[in-house]
Amino acid sequence: MAEKTTFERMYNVPLRKGWLKVPKYKRSKKAVKTLKEFLIKHMKSENIKLGKQVNEHIWKHGIKNPPHHVKITAIKEEDGTVKAELEGFKFKEAIKSKKKEEKATGLKGKLQDALGKDEKKSEEKTEDETPKKEIEEKSKPIAKKTTTKKTSKQKTTKTAKTKNTTKKTETSKK
């Protein structure tokens, strides 16, 4: 059988010159970008994949303290993809997490958990079948009482009138 034509190279990639140009809180991000730029230049391919171990090695001391140099093994495959991994390790891609289902919160969510997910699906189907007008009518509130609030100007005028009348009564008594 024909083997894929691949070639493998080992590099000691200098990262310090790249990450010294950015603020401390962006250093490890820039180190990863510098590593990718180095591989693009030297392996002559735009499709670069970094392995899990390289990524963990760069981020080992946090975002502010990446390593100055990284020794890697780069493998270029027939289709042009370059896979880079820390020296001494086999390439292993990071596992992408699956999307989590959103749970309903509050009383509705607790009821759905208690009844089970099968009940939830049947409820959704029955809700979709009811006409929208009926739902809107059910959700409308019964007539509300309206109250008017007096503004601060109206209050002050009333208090001023009462003060004036009390003054008049006091003067008339004397």
List keywords for this structure.
174 residues; alpha+beta; Ribosomal Protein L31e, Chain: W; four-stranded mixed sheet; 7 helices; elongated
Note down, in words, how this protein is organized:
This protein is α+β, with helices and mostly antiparallel strands. It has a domain at 7-86: Ribosomal protein L31 (Ribosomal Protein L31e, Chain: W). Helices cover 47% and strands 14% of the residues. The protein has seven helices and four strands, in the order βααβαββαααα. It has a four-stranded mixed sheet. A hairpin with a 5-residue loop joins β3 (69-76) and β4 (82-86). The radius of gyration is 36 Å and the shape is elongated. The mean pLDDT is 77.
Task: Give a brief outline of the structure.
This protein has 174 residues and is of the alpha+beta class. Helices cover 47% and strands 14% of the residues.
